Amino acid sequence: MSLEPEATVGIDRVRFAWRHGQRDVLDIVHFAVAAGERVFIEGPSGSGKSSLLSLIGGVTSPREGSIRILGADLVRMPSRHRDRFRADHVGFVFQMFNLVPYLSMVDNVTLPCRFSRRRRERAGAQTGTPEAEARRLLARLGLDRDGLFERTVTDLSIGQQQRVAAARALIGAPELIVADEPTSALDEGARGRFLELLSTQCDEAGASLLLASHDPRLGDAFDRRVSLPELNRAESDPNRRAA
Q1: Prediction pTM value
Q2: In this structure, what DSSP letter does residue 208 have?
Q3: Strand pairing partners for 55?
Q4: Angle at 68 between CA 67 and CA 74, to 5 degrees
Q5: Closest C-alpha among 23, 49, 50, 28 to residue 241
Q6: Contact yes or no for 133/201 (Cβ under 8 A)
């Protein structure tokens, strides 16, 4: 099945297992995300949500099939080119945050700009400098209290760390935002502000948003919801190895 020309993400006949000889974690015939579309992927813990997002972000590779982002086939790219492509075009909100513990909030948010000239230039075009853009995003997420900007992330609550990770993904307006269980540590009010910021920033940049969570209540904020257990043919195998 061919990729729709307007798609930001296109997956065709992808099969993935964590190690050679293991049963498939994912077996997906076709999945696509259109430019500017906001898609919610729902499924219980162990259904393969993190595995799917890792494939889409080029962090891992399938054992067969095609994964195209903005028309480029990640599977055919050398790993060095894939890393550069991800830095330029994909913003990640990881489930475990992956923040640098000895850096301030602002320095953590601007990290993608150190690895991607493209995102550095786009961040500077927004508010003058990447640092100013980082402060704007953090303020939108309610992290603009006096002195908070200069704290190291280890001094922040889990919920605050999660919002820093979101701002880091958004800086430099990447075309695709990928978020793995990004609201698990947020209260209801912060959860609403978080989703509103993601949606607003993605709309302004024309970016696609792909968010995975086990919480079905989040699905109402998206253009489309997808059940991973229904999409994933490996889910029907009771002996598969979950991830």
Answers
A1: 0.88
A2: E
A3: none
A4: 70
A5: 23
A6: no
Using CA atoms, how far apart are residues 125 and 119, in angstroms rounded to an integer? 10
Q: Which pLDDT band, with edges at 50, 70 and 90, does 63 fall under?
A: very high
Rounded Cα–Cα distance for residues 214 and 180 (Å): 10
Per-residue pLDDT tens digits for 162-215: 889 989 999 999 999 999 988 877 778 778 888 888 888 888 888 999 999 998
> Is the distance from CB of 25 to CB of 228 less than 8 angstroms?
no
The enclosing H or E element of 39 equals strand 38-42
Domains of the chain: 9-236 (3.40.50.300)
Residue with tokens 């990004």: 182
* Count of CB atoms situated within 10 Å of the CB of 117: 12
Chain centroid offset of residue 81 CA: 19
**pLDDT at position 114, please?**
95
User: Are the beta carbons of 112 and 168 closer than 8 angstroms?
Assistant: yes
239 φ, ψ (degrees, to nearest 5): -100, 5
| 133: exposed, middle or buried (Cβ count in 10 Å: 0-12, 13-18, 19+) | buried
Residue type, 8: T
Mean pLDDT on 30-53: 94
